[in-house]
Structures are given as C-alpha cells and as structure tokens.
Amino acid sequence: MIxxxxxxxxxxxxxxxxNEQGQKIRRCKLDNNRDNIRNFIGSIDGxxxxxxxxTMNWGMFHDAVEDLxxxxxLGHPKKMKAIAESEIKHDRKDAETISRMLxxxxxxxxxxxxxxxxRLRSLLRxxxxxxxxxxxxxxxxxxxxxxxxxxxxxxxxxxxPFCARGLTWLKSVSLPISERHILxxxxxSFETLSNKISAFEIFIAQQAIxxxxxxxxxxxxxxxxxxxNAYTVLLEIDIIDRFTKARRLAHYAGLIPGExxxxxxxRKKGLVKANxxxxxxxxxxxxxxxxxxxxxxxxxxxxxxxxxxxxGIVAVARKLCYAIYHVLxxxxxxRPESFTPSAxxxxxxxGSPLAN
Length: 356
Prior knowledge:
Blueprint: E1 2-8, E2 12-18, E3 24-31, H1 34-42, E4 48-53, H2 58-65, E5 71-75, H3 81-84, H4 91-104, E6 109-110, H5 115-148, H6 164-172, H7 177-207, H8 214-217, H9 228-237, H10 246-252, E7 257-259, E8 268-271, H11 276-292, H12 294-307, H13 309-330, H14 343-350
Parallel strand pairs: 1-4, 4-5
Antiparallel strand pairs: 1-2, 2-3, 5-6, 7-8
C-alpha cells in the first residue's frame, strides 16, 4: 500500500510519498485548494493510506480527500514527539517523519469524527465560549460592586446580583459617572449574551434531537432533564467503542489524577489535562446528580468529609463517567448503586456521638 505523509498548514502543504517497501517515490509542496489536493492524491495509483497531524482545519482536508484514499489516519499532536522534539524541523522533514511513522506502524492515532459530529460539536463549543464571556462580565460587575459599595449598604433580599431583583437594583444603584457607564455597558452585554445563548440552545436542540445514545444517557442522574450537557457528552465521546474501558474515558475527560513516580519516588499531581468541554459537562451534572441519587449523595458526603467538597464533586463526576461508559457501551438504562461506607468512614462514625 502506498503511504502519503502530509505536513498540512494554512496556505501550503508538503507531501512525502512512500511505496510498499518504504522508498520515497514523490515529494512536493502545493498551495492549499481543493482541486490541487484532489488532483495530486488522485494521480497516485493503487491502494493508499494517508496520514496527517491533527490541526485546527484537518476536517476540511479530510472531507476533500476521504473518497480518494483507502485509509485516513489522523495523528495525535501531543504524542508525535518525533516531530515536536526534532532538532532539525522543517516542512519536508516533518512530512517525511509522518510518512515513516505511518509506514512502520508507529503512528499515534487520534479519533476521526464525522463531519456532522464536528459541526454539532462546533455549535456546542461556541456556546461554551459565550458562557465564558458572560461569566467574565459577571466577574467584572462583582469587582465594580466591591470597590464602590459597602457590604452593609447592599440589599439583603438576594445573593445573585444577576437575578431579576438584582438586575433591577444594579440599574438603579447610585454610582460615580464613570463607574455607572461601565456598569451599564456590562448589563447590556450580559442581557445580550443571555438572549444569544438562549437562542443558541434552541437551535442546538433542533439539530441534535436524534443523537444515538441520548435515550440511555437520559437515565443517568444529572442528565434526565439536561439538554446542553447531554449533547456535549455524546458529541465529545462520539463513538464509545473507541474506549476499551471506563477508566480510559475518565482519563479522556480529565477526571483522573496525574502521577509522577519513578523508583522509590511517588508523587501525585492534579487532574490530567484533557477534554475540558467533557469535564465541564460532567462536573456540572455531578452537582445535580448528588441531589437526585441517594447513593451518589452519600458517596459525595464520604469523600467531602475526608478530602473536601471539590474532591467530592470530582469523585462523583468520575463515577458518573464510569456509569455513562457502561450505559452507552451496553445500551441499557442506568442502574443505581447503593453506597457502601469505607473502613475510614466506619471508624469516623464509630467515634461520633451518633454511634452511642
């Protein structure tokens, strides 16, 4: 099988082609347009496999050549150390390295999602961006309040300044002219973004209504009435069979602690850096799940007692992640688990006044 390695950039791409024996037969650099790419790939006779590193616009290239190649391989950028750590780095060398890795079978694969999945996921990620911007506006308003109004002078009838009563108070509170102007702009931006996010959510629901696995995911606590988080989980996971076990999915979601151990040296680190969209959806759903599922609620209390509330929410999110894996993998409804206290919890309870 012919092997094609591509170093893909925004305006140009470099191609390195190997025959079945691993010998170079062609190499060239082309301007990026659909006709150029298709003409070059189509001019190579015989069965062929193509490999490229995952970039921001890899999907556009994939859709242009998918029907021309027998196998399309996407390289995981963080695992392609042969390119990232190379002392001699240029386009021709990178394209050759990709083709050699693919030909030898040591190509670090990344998941290739369908064009429909990518489009729906882009909608959700843009909504996530809008929510982050709105959150920053809320933070700016809170800072403005803290630097201008004493806590004793604030109304006690609400906690959130962006609830209905809070917004009414924000619009009428007396402030210096410059601060009043900033607050007005923040309120206008907040209301505009809130309207856009609501409209976006309606559009997303119309597009993602028939997602496979949605029925089974709805049975998991925290996702029964969820819209956006349920869609996010399904689209970020995409195909559950690409994860061989539940822990791999939890690692992909960034809910597994990192570790740096060697010999007698053992050191735990924070949560691994992974898919932030999936992790956010699971953490938000965990906050809902502990109010709906007694087993998860008791588990949260157990971890909170030993490690704090933050660790408890992460632990519940990890349990949800494991449950989602089995629900989607086995195509069944969620089965609640009863909570069994650990030995440490039993010892704590034995020493409490309630045990007497």
